[in-house]
Amino acid sequence: MEVKVSWNGPSGMSFRAETGTGHMVAMDGAPEAGGHNLAPRPMEMLLVGTGGCTAFDVVLILQRGRENVLGCDVTLQAERAETDPKVFTKINFHFVISGRNLKPAAVERAVKLSHEKYCSASIMMAKTAEMTYSFEIVEAV
C-alpha cells in the first residue's frame, strides 16, 4: 500500500494525497495553524479511515451471517491528549444498524469481531486510546 502526500504550496497548510489506487484526497489545517479550513484535518482522516474500516467489517460480517442488513452508520467521537504528541486517548464508536429482523446478538458479535479481530485501524488506534462501542438497531420498513 502506498500514498503520496504533497503540499499545495506556501499560501497555506493544505495538502493533497493520492492513493495507490489512484484516488485523490484533500487535507487542510485550521486557520490558526495557517490553513484555510477547506478540507478535513489529517487527524480527522484517521477517524474517517477507522470508521470506514469497522463499518465495512460489520456489514460484511452481518451479510455473511445472512442477516438482512440495509444500512450502517457509525459515529466516532474522540478525545486527544492535551500535549504533544496529541494522540487519541478515547474513541467511542456508536453504530446504527438498520435492516429487517436483525438479531441483536448477531450485531453485537459483528461489532466485537471487527474491533477485536478484523479492523486493523481500530486495533492500531487501541494502542493509545480507550475504545468504547455501542449500537442500536433500527427496523427497516
Automatic annotation (TrEMBL):
Gene3D superfamilies: 3.30.300.20
Cross-referenced Pfam families: OsmC
PANTHER family: PROTEIN YHFA (PTHR34352:SF1)
Protein name: OsmC family protein
Species lineage: Bacteria, Pseudomonadati, Pseudomonadota, Betaproteobacteria, Burkholderiales
